[in-house]
């Protein structure tokens, strides 16, 4: 593998894998770089460049073996085994994440849930008993948690992320509407729903400006 791989490349690999799995389910055996490029809006040249970081795949003029590339990308993305997740914050977003079966299907197993609300502690949600924050460190150590998920209000998100880092998780996914930086070498990814919606709002507004029809509110 050549050098550090950019986040944008890794995101495209995930999109390639999603399409490949869909193709595999429908019995497609070979796929071109041009078709793989479609979900990400990349070019066929970009697909070939992204894959070249990790080795040689496919044959010129013949495309890629769907099954072979699925297995290769699963290995590259670390999906050939399961990762254990701990969720902090069992509100609306946290509860939705617990109920989302797609996580386990992709190798991400939520094994613990924590909250600071006494009314929630001790209750069960989707097969998990919600635990007190005071149990965070020992439970994460006992269960061998790999990834911490922050789904708390923004005002406590940094404190919770720091606690997860101290407890020994290897990475953190943040759903709170606040930017969090790496903590003691633990990488953090933030999912900002509002930011994504604003991006969509721009695209809709731009389309309206081009058509001269005006926006929904204007």
The number of E-state strands comes to 9
SS field, number of helical segments: 9
Query: Could you describe the largest sheet, including whether it forms a barrel?
Result: 7 strands, mixed
Which term fits the overall shape? Answer: globular
Strand order of the largest sheet: 5-6-4-3-7-8-9
- Alpha carbon gyration radius: 21 Å
Helix content: 40-55%
Q: Indicate the proportion of strand residues.
A: 15-25%
As residue ranges, the low-confidence spans are: none
Which architecture name of the largest domain does CATH use? 3-Layer(aba) Sandwich
CATH domain fold name of the largest domain: Rossmann fold
End-to-end Cα distance: 51 Å
Q: What is the structural class?
A: alpha/beta
- The whole-number mean of residue pLDDT values reads 88
Q: Name the helix and strand elements from N-terminus to C-terminus, one letter apiece.
A: HEHHEHEHHEEEHEHEEH
- Count up the domains: 2
């Amino acid at each position: 593998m050549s050098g550090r791989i950019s986040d944008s490349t890794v995101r495209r690999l995930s999109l390639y894998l999603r399409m490949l799995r869909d193709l595999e389910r429908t019995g497609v055996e070979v796929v071109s770089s041009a078709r793989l490029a479609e979900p990400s809006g990349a070019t066929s040249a970009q697909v070939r460049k992204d894959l070249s970081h990790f080795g040689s795949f496919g044959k010129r003029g013949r495309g890629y073996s769907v099954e072979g590339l699925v297995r290769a990308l699963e290995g590259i993305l670390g999906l050939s085994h399961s990762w254990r997740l701990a969720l902090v914050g069992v509100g609306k977003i946290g509860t939705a994440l617990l109920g989302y079966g797609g996580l386990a299907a992709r190798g991400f197993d939520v094994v613990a849930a924590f909250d600071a609300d006494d009314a929630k502690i001790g209750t069960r949600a989707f097969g998990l008993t919600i635990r007190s924050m005071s149990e965070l460190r020992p439970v994460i150590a006992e269960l061998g948690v790999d990834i911490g998920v922050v789904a708390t209000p923004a005002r406590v998100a940094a404190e919770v992320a720091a606690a997860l880092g101290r407890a020994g998780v290897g990475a953190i996914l943040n759903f709170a509407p606040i930017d969090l930086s790496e903590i003691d070498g633990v990488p953090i990814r933030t999912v900002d729903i509002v930011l994504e919606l604003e991006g969509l709002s721009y695209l809709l507004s731009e389309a309206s400006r081009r058509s001269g029809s005006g926006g929904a509110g204007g």
